[in-house]
């Protein structure tokens, strides 16, 4: 299942409006098919894996990160039906599909056709890998990551605004991979005017994975940009399951004030800046007691001399 | 030697004007004597360890974190002489004594008396454990640690100054142990007026290890405090080898501007504060390129939900 979840990551930032599912088909301890939801949502992971496995799917076990879809769609076949027809003997599912059109019916359909079904294996990890899809289903909005590149003392730039470079090439490359894993990036009007950021993915082989650009502003957005007037409007962004907030301090604060940050990506350089620009503006915190218990460290690593820390909102689980 | 260095830690913050040395005497794979420089500098580590070992020191190996002293003092015997007279067969030394009154002569004296001497084992670690003594000898000033208790976004307090509590009980207890390992603590006038800090060690069994209190200010210091007018004046503080800078932002910046911070102790809580007080004021940084390559991570650990990171200045080695 861990391998299937890893496969699901390949579709992230590409698969909307469909969830980025991963699927692995195993027969006699050998992988005979691998699939992940393709660009635009089709084919589904299961369809792709079954096409690889061909007749070897018969009697095999399929590992799927999300319950196979049961509802009819003009865009493609129902995966539950596909798996049953291919003669798969056992389907191991991480996460039950929260979409009410499937929601247990995919598993039931398979069981009725004599397929052994297990559900719940690594469900938490699968939900994290498809966090945007899950939030869309449960709260009607995309999953939001706030990215900050900080000095040890929490600065994102000198007082004059210069921020090239705080973090080194490894951290910047990692940040570009993160961009590719998101459907859209948000910046505020100040950042747009000051930095005129391209927000593209500058990594060989991933140039076509640059996410859409969204401006948080009351004024009009330039050509090639979408605009939202408030963080809450992200719910209306079409085909955006994973959203990255890249700055500046007021935009970060606006999302935090609205309770619309699910994940923090902190790239920290081993430098001190002193007087300079802070990464986060006023979030309306009146009492330190209210600041505690909200964030949980879920990943950390070294990136050259820099360090990455990933925190997830405790309440968004 | 690692055990001898650990022993040396027991005298830190107590042993001035003498270095906090550790000594272990081993005979037939058994520890027969342990010692560390006692309060006020006497007895020396070697004398204490030899007193424990008694006749078992004969033919034994002594591990000492610093070259045994050779120079005559009215305050006690010469350790090189003591070791030779006790019949110790072998002396393993981490660090050659930078004090010009010994500086290789202790080792030479031992060799002349037929004792096998090895020097340099874990010298870097020993130098770190006696960093204050080494800096006193080489630069004529104490070793300076800057402590900060920060939120993830680098704040040390809300905008109204409230900072109770950012870090949790484990981090605060650790900070009190660090206080006990220092001879004196510096704060600025703003911190004194705002927080009236006790700066004492509030840990059971260590109450008597509270360091001296030093005020960085142009105005007079209250009773029980010493005063310096500028960071450079720390060189004149009597019997201070290890100095802890605890705040606030302007005091931290003054020491950083003067190039007088050797070590950073960052206690980081998993909280966001947003608009609030920064930990470090203007350090006169005009170009980000100058900020890089100055700090190296040397230790990190979890303290409850908080994290401690220790950085050392690259140039002070």
UniProtKB/TrEMBL annotation, chains A, B:
The EC code for this enzyme is 1.1.1.193, 3.5.4.26
Q: Which UniProt keywords apply?
A: Metal-binding, Multifunctional enzyme, NADP, Oxidoreductase, Riboflavin biosynthesis, Zinc
Q: Which domain of life is it from?
A: Bacteria
Q: In which pathway does it act?
A: Cofactor biosynthesis; riboflavin biosynthesis; 5-amino-6-(D-ribitylamino)uracil from GTP: step 2/4; Cofactor biosynthesis; riboflavin biosynthesis; 5-amino-6-(D-ribitylamino)uracil from GTP: step 3/4
Q: Which residues bind Zn(2+)?
A: 44, 69, 79
- Gene Ontology BP annotations: riboflavin biosynthetic process
The record's annotation in Gene3D superfamilies points to:
Cytidine Deaminase, domain 2, Dihydrofolate Reductase, subunit A
Residue ranges annotated for the CMP/dCMP-type deaminase domain, each copy included: 1-117
Q: Where does NADP(+) bind?
A: 149, 165, 191, 195, 199, 248-254
Output the InterPro entries linked to this UniProt entry: CMP_dCMP_dom, Cytidine_deaminase-like, DHFR-like_dom_sf, Eubact_RibD, RibDG_C, Riboflavin_Biosynth_HTPR
Q: Which residues form the active site?
A: 46 (proton donor)
Q: How is the cofactor bound, as the UniProt entry phrases it?
A: Binds 1 zinc ion.
Indicate which residues the UniProt annotation says bind substrate: 163, 179, 202, 246
* The protein's required cofactors: Zn(2+)
Instruction: Please provide, alphabetically and separated by semicolons, the GO molecular function terms listed in this UniProt record.
Output: 5-amino-6-(5-phosphoribosylamino)uracil reductase activity; diaminohydroxyphosphoribosylaminopyrimidine deaminase activity; metal ion binding
Q: What does this protein do?
A: Converts 2,5-diamino-6-(ribosylamino)-4(3h)-pyrimidinone 5'-phosphate into 5-amino-6-(ribosylamino)-2,4(1h,3h)-pyrimidinedione 5'-phosphate.
Q: Which family does it belong to?
A: In the N-terminal section; belongs to the cytidine and deoxycytidylate deaminase family. In the C-terminal section; belongs to the HTP reductase family.
Name of protein: Riboflavin biosynthesis protein RibD
Instruction: Record the organism.
Output: Sphingobium xenophagum
